[in-house]
Q: What sequence folds into this?
């Protein structure tokens, strides 16, 4: 089943409350998927540095001295802020992707959750309330974020099987549904040299978008192409550096509700997830159309991009 | 008037109280406050009572309804009035997917738009949508009437049996074996009554009628892949 929530803030006064609002929305969706949960938050580093978010089972060992090793490898200053099983490495601006490449050698036990300028992904096995509490998500401020609570259908319940999935610099994907051609697509993408870690169907969806974008597609074009190349049920919500996008498969069995006010744009698998947002009673509430790519960003006005089913 | 605070007192208590109403109950008017998108609000009712829901609801609102009148003063989630047998369900806002699915009787009125699969496998229910309906509406519809005052999405009436479909606006595409049919005097009469009962401001003459071409009733090799 799975539950998805997303919140994009237009009103900067709400930014200190982003983590708390998203956590409340995600906990409401617990009974759509209680086995693992994750949240992607977008917030700028005060000094404008880029970020690599990493995870390790044994953070005491894995994170010890990691900042110094990374600083030496990158040739610039690096700091590490630990948050339970996760840590954010703050690296010199624009060096997040380089840091992601280097970390495989520097710390083979550490797993990369995300890289980019503003994106941080926190995800673990467990109920949304427990996952949010262990990372203290309600205290995190930010411009926009996405949350997911998982009911596993296609692969094991593990940290790496939890959503959101990082698809590229400052990009992430969450998914409600199941892809039925993920095995053949995984083989195809692996032949193309795309790194895929698990047997999870959504990771293949994320890798597909990454591959499309590596070959010159914009995120919007990649999402449109996914309507042709992915077989199965999907509601995707994708996070980008300055906004988020939504796309549903042409059959659109999986539920989706959106709400917009002067202060925010919100996405929920169900209306229940949105009921405690400020001013929801006067919000414009609607269901996104099937086979239609929607984007909201701080840089441009929303423009749904219709593709014939 | 009985008022029930769903947030404070819980769903089971609400449905138990509504189920306890006999056909000669004195407590005929109920108001439900703080629904906040809850699932299964006022399901399985079987008494001539009037239930008003002050706000939007989640899955399966007023499912399996008999006799009762349920009015949602907001929007309803997936499967509203699913398998309704009799009575009236009125949604003041929009309805999500498969509204009125498998309904056997009664009247479902949606004053906003309905999403995909409205009236899927309907079996005698009357559904009047003031706005538009989404794709695959009236899929495998068996009997009853679906009235759409706005537009219909893709594949309207796919694999339809004997339900009647009336659409005032455009139809994006017709599903397999669904065709436009003549509007005869008895259909105008039927439509006039439905529009009136649903409080819809539309004239029967503005609608087109669609129904089954009856070409899928028997096996034909041309239909096989």
A:
């Amino acid at each position: 089943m799975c539950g998805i929530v997303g919140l994009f803030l237009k009103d900067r006064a709400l930014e200190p409350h982003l983590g708390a609002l998203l956590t409340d929305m995600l906990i409401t969706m617990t009974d759509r998927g209680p086995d693992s949960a994750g949240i992607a938050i977008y917030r700028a580093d005060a000094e404008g540095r880029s970020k690599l978010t990493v995870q390790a089972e044994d953070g005491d060992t894995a994170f010890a001295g990691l900042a110094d090793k990374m600083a030496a490898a990158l040739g610039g200053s690096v700091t590490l802020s630990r948050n339970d099983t996760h840590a954010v490495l703050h690296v010199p601006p624009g060096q997040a992707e380089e840091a992601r490449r280097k970390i495989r050698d520097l710390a083979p036990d550490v797993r990369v959750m995300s890289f980019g300028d503003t994106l941080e992904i926190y995800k673990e096995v467990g109920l949304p309330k427990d996952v949010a509490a262990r990372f203290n998500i309600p205290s995190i401020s930010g411009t926009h974020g996405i949350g997911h609570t998982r009911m596993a259908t296609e692969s094991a319940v593990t940290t790496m099987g939890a959503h959101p999935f990082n698809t590229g610099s400052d990009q992430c994907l969450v998914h409600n549904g199941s892809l039925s051609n993920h095995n053949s697509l995984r083989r195809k993408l692996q032949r193309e040299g795309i790194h895929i870690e698990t047997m999870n169907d959504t990771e293949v969806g994320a890798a597909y978008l990454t591959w499309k974008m590596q070959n010159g597609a914009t995120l919007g074009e990649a999402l449109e192409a996914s309507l042709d190349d992915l077989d199965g049920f999907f509601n995707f919500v994708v996070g980008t550096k300055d906004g988020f996008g939504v796309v549903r498969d042409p059959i659109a069995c999986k539920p989706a509700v959106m709400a917009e006010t002067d202060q925010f744009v919100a996405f929920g698998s169900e209306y229940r997830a949105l009921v405690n947002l400020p001013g929801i009673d006067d919000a414009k509430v609607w269901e996104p159309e099937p086979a239609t790519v929607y984007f909201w960003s701080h840089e441009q006005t929303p423009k749904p991009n219709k593709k014939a089913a | 008037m009985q008022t029930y605070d769903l947030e404070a007192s819980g769903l089971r208590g609400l449905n138990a109280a509504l189920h306890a109403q006999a056909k000669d109950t004195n407590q005929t008017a109920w108001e439900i406050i703080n629904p906040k998108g809850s699932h299964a609000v006022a399901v399985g009712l079987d008494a001539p009572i009037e239930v008003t829901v002050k706000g939007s609801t989640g899955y399966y609102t007023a499912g399996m309804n008999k006799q009762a009148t349920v009015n949602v003063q907001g929007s309803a989630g997936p499967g509203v009035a699913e398998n309704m047998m009799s009575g009236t369900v009125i949604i003041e806002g929009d309805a999500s997917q498969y509204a009125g699915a498998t309904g056997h009787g009664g009247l479902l009125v949606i004053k906003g738009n309905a999403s995909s699969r409205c009236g899927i496998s309907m079996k005698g229910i009357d559904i009047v949508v003031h706005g538009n309906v989404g794709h695959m509406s009236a899929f495998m519809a068996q009997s009853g009437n679906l009235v759409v005052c706005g537009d219909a999405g893709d594949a309207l009436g796919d694999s339809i049996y004997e339900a009647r479909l009336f659409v005032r606006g455009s139809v994006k595409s017709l599903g397999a074996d669904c065709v436009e049919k003549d509007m005869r005097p008895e259909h105008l009469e039927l439509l006039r009554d439905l529009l009136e009962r649903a409080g819809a401001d539309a004239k029967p003459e503005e609608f087109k009628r669609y129904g089954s071409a009856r070409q899928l009733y028997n096996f034909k090799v041309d239909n096989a892949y």
Observations:
- Chain B has a mean pLDDT of 96.
